[in-house]
Amino acid sequence: MAWQGRLETKEDLNGVYETPVRYTAGFAIGIIAIELIYPKMPGNVANATTYPFPVLYRKVTFDVERLFAGDAGLKDEILAAAKELENEGVRAIIGACGYFAYFQREVAEAVDVPVFLSSLCQLPLIKTAVSAKKKIAVFAASGENISDTVLQQVGTDMERLVVVDIGGFPEFHPIRYGETTLDNGALKKALCDAAADLLKREPEVGAILLECSDLPPYAKAIQAVTGLPVFDFNTMIDMVYHAVVQKTYYGYF
Asked: How far is 4 from 17, CA to CA, in rounded Å?
């Protein structure tokens, strides 16, 4: 794979460069996002101010409930969006919903750049990092759809998982059902209360994964309540970015 080189110094600008003809450049991360209309807070995967680097979006226009259920009829539109992003020169592809995991393997085989369609891709890593005596809580937008069926696409299963279904929270309805008004403070409180209640019921939980791409804005508050490591889409995207855009180190020794 031939990637355009990174320009590290002003002197690099004096070089001679050849690159595929595209109308834009410099987008390392491409994100497939569902067309849903609701307030997208900073931290949301679909809010570009979340990132300290540029991202490139491609829109898909199906009902999110179909994605929650893993509807095979969505595959062609998702594959087309991934290939469009690849053609625009992204170095990795993300899906802005955890349930894109249903299509992780098919998309990864269809393109030549790394694919991390779901925050759930982090589960094997988290299970490796956390003691086998500990459980991992998954805060999910549709808890009933967190199952071995979807998890096998990201190389894991339901073992050691505790699912917290936030999809039915009234405070989450504006996001799930596409409303124009979101009570951000009420949603934060509902999530923090759920996290505190979880630890009372399941004190052996050792880490939390936020499945939904709308939940990273609340990760810090959840961590403050629980004192646990909290993984989300943005912990994954940051890792992926630094893998595909390595940097030169400066300092002294």
From this structure: 8
